[in-house]
Structure formats: C-alpha cells, structure tokens
Design goal:
alpha/beta, Rossmann fold, 9-stranded mixed beta sheet, 23 strands, 11% helix, globular, binds coenzyme A
Length: 219
C-alpha cells in the first residue's frame, strides 16, 4: 500500500472537488501532506482547481460515486501517477490486514485481522470490516456500516449508513445496501436491498448529477 502514515510535506493532488474531497483534504493535512489542490472538470462555484499536475505529487481520488471513482483512478494509473491511501489518525488497521492503494479511512474506521480491502475503497467514520473479510475495489462503507467476520464484498458496492452484514455472507459487485439494512444472506451482483432483514428493492434508479470527467485534461 502507498499509505499516508506520514506525508512529510509531500504534495498531494485530490481528484474531485466536492464535499468528500474536502474531508479527505482535512485528513491529509493532519497526516502532514501538502494539499497542492483539486482537479475537477466541474468544480463548485468559486473554487479554483489546478491547471496542471504538479511535479513530484501523489494523488488520491475523492469522488463518492463508486463507478466514477474507479474510472478516474484507472486514468491516473494509466498516466503513471502514484495513488496513495489516506488514513485518519484514529483509524485502526490490523497488522495482518491489507489495504490497497487510493483508499480513504475516516475517523475510527477499523479493519480487523486477516482482512483485505482493495484499491480505491472508502470507509467512512466508524465503519468496521471485521476479521477474515475480503472487500473489493471501489467499495463505499457509509458511517457505522459494519460486517461480521468472513464476509466478502464485490467491487463498487455501496453499504449505506449503519448497514450491517451477518458473518459469512457474500455480497456481489455493484450492489447497494440501504442505510440501516441488515444483510443476513448472500446478495447477487447489482442488487439493491433495504430493511431488516434486507430484501430487494425493485424500482427504476435515479442518478445524481455527475461531473463530466470525459472532459478532464489533467491526468
Ligand atoms: C437504498 C438506496 C440505495 C435506494 O436509493 P434509491 O434507488 O434512490 O431509492 P429511493 O430513495 O427512490 O427510495 C425508493 C423507496 O425505498 C425506500 N427506501 C429507500 N432507502 C431505504 C432504506 N435505506 N431503508 C428503507 N427504505 C428505504 C424509500 O422510502 C422509497 O419508498 P417509497 O417508494 O415507498 O416512497 C438509498 O435509499 C440508500 O439507503 N442509500 C444509502 C446512502 C448512504 O447511506 N450512503 C452513505 C455514503 S457516505
């Protein structure tokens, strides 16, 4: 893992310029990084973004949408950039756990023994990945979302605020686990589940407005 236990004044470029990006910037500052600036083709009004990638800088992608985060991460890797993980000083990672590059761990996030968390994954405050779990790339755990042991979670899956997952369950890729849901069985790819115990939600998806990263020129 390119981990930020110690930024030591090195430059960090943050991809994304909205809410989550500012949370990451704050933590990066606590870790001794110099936040060189933000890159976003569609930043909030009044926020100046970078016009070029500063030399000798590392990068992290701070975009909440899992699919978009994966896309931007991939472009940066292709461009040869170094992606780092930023861990809040209160986050705890077992010495026997692994964390991929470009992850963000917020306040009191925990990864327990023998677990792996792949690249670009976001653990919000108080999220718990229990022991012997495998969490795929570009997953988001909302605040206080938690798994029991021996859980696997596929890529780009979202666990909403306070969602819980019974030990030994397997959740596929591209799933959405509703806020407060309790998963007590396996969840197939691309499914949305809600409630306690979690059941499928079948309806047309709404999509939020996203920046047009196809228009971005700074990689
Ligand atoms: C489950 C979820 C993904 C569905 O989102 P969506 O597809 O936009 O669904 P909608 O908001 O249109 O809701 C559809 C229906 O499900 C209900 N619903 C939505 N989320 C629910 C939840 N978590 N628990 C129970 N019911 C829920 C809504 O009330 C609505 O019911 P209705 O049709 O009777 O009015 C979303 O509501 C959710 O819980 N996301 C988690 C977000 C989160 O915690 N993110 C953390 C990031 S830091």
């Amino acid at each position: 893992m390119n981990e930020d236990r110690d930024g030591r004044g090195r430059n960090l470029v943050i991809y994304g310029a909205w809410r989550y990006a500012h949370v990451v910037a704050e933590t990066a500052g606590m870790r001794g990084w110099n936040v060189a600036g933000f890159v976003d083709p569609d930043p909030p009004d009044g926020l100046n973004t970078l016009t070029e990638f500063p030399a000798d800088s590392a990068a992290i992608v701070a975009i909440g949408d899992n699919g978009l985060r994966a896309f931007v991460y991939d472009q940066l890797l292709k461009g040869g950039r170094t992606l780092v993980s930023i861990l809040h000083p209160t986050a705890l990672v077992s010495p026997s756990a692994t964390v991929g590059d470009g992850c963000y761990l917020a306040e009191y996030a925990v990864i327990r023994a023998n677990s792996s968390v792949a690249a670009g994954t976001l653990l919000n405050s108080g999220a718990v990945v229990s022991h012997d779990c495998h969490v795929g790339p570009f997953v988001t755990f909302g605040p206080n979302a938690a798994t029991g042991g021996y859980v696997s979670i596929g890529e780009r899956t979202l666990l909403g605020v306070g969602a819980s997952v019974r030990p030994h369950c397997s959740i596929g890729s591209g799933c959405r686990i509703g806020a407060g849901a309790a998963v007590v069985g396996d969840v197939q790819d691309e499914m949305t589940v809600i409630n306690v115990p979690a059941k499928p939600l079948n309806h047309n998806l709404r999509t939020d407005k996203q920046s047009d990263w196809g228009a971005n020129r700074i990689w």
